[in-house]
Amino acid sequence: MENKKKIKKSTSYIIIAIIIVVGIVLDLVSKHFFASYFEKTSKSIVVIPNFFEFTFLKNTGAAYGMFGDSTLGLTIVSIVFIIAFVVFDIFNHKNDLLYAFGIGLIISGAIGNLVDRIFLGYVRDFVSIKLFSFVFNLADLFITAGVICFLIYMIVAMIKEKRNNRKNEVDSK
């Protein structure tokens, strides 16, 4: 029985690693593609008029343009953030798909933007949804989706724990 747990745990780590690698690759390739395209032209690519377009922005701030002109500080925060999530996972790892997606997406997005900050001094943003007043990239989207997955996992885990506690209380009476 113990062997099955190890297989599940190792499979979970493999899933997280794959998500991280695929996320970083997708983020960096998409940034390179749009940066190369917009080097040749400054015209935005309108996908849905007045709603969705691709445009290019050199972002010295955080996700969605927050904390502008803070590249060095955000580089340090990103490194600490990545280390903290890896350490958290080492000590609190769960064999759950939502958990794996959450951790994997958060780390891949953080690394993708960290690579830009270290090598370029800014993050390449290219997705613009006109409903909001910011431009973002896949790494920002991965971090956001990862946080949502992680929160859903935590809520579901808390609900399950409460049910188990209630069941144990009833069984002990």
Average pLDDT score: 88
Strand order of the largest sheet: 1-2-3-4
Number of helices: 4
| Major pleated sheet | 4 strands, antiparallel
Helix content: 55-70%
Given the C-alpha coordinates, what overall shape results? elongated
Q: Could you tell me the strand content as a percent range? A: 5-15%
Query: How far apart, in Å, are the first and last alpha carbons?
Result: 30 Å
Multimerization state: single chain
Q: Using DSSP, what is the number of strands?
A: 4
What string, H for helix and E for strand, traces the elements in order? Answer: HEEHHEEH
User: Which regions contain 5 or more consecutive residues with pLDDT less than 50?
Assistant: 1-6
Secondary-structure content class: alpha+beta
Radius of gyration: 20 Å
What would you note in describing this structure?
- With 173 residues, this protein is α+β, with helices and mostly antiparallel strands.
- The protein has 4 helices and 4 strands; from the N terminus they run H-E-E-H-H-E-E-H.
- It has helices at 2-40, 71-92, 97-120, 138-172, and strands at 45-48, 52-59, 123-129, 135-136.
- It has a 4-stranded antiparallel beta sheet with strand order 1-2-3-4.
- A hairpin with a 5-residue loop joins strand 3 (123-129) and strand 4.
- Helix 1 (2-40) runs parallel beside helix 3 and helix 2 (71-92) runs antiparallel to helix 3.
- The longest helix has 39 residues, at 2-40.
- It is elongated, with a radius of gyration of 20 Å.
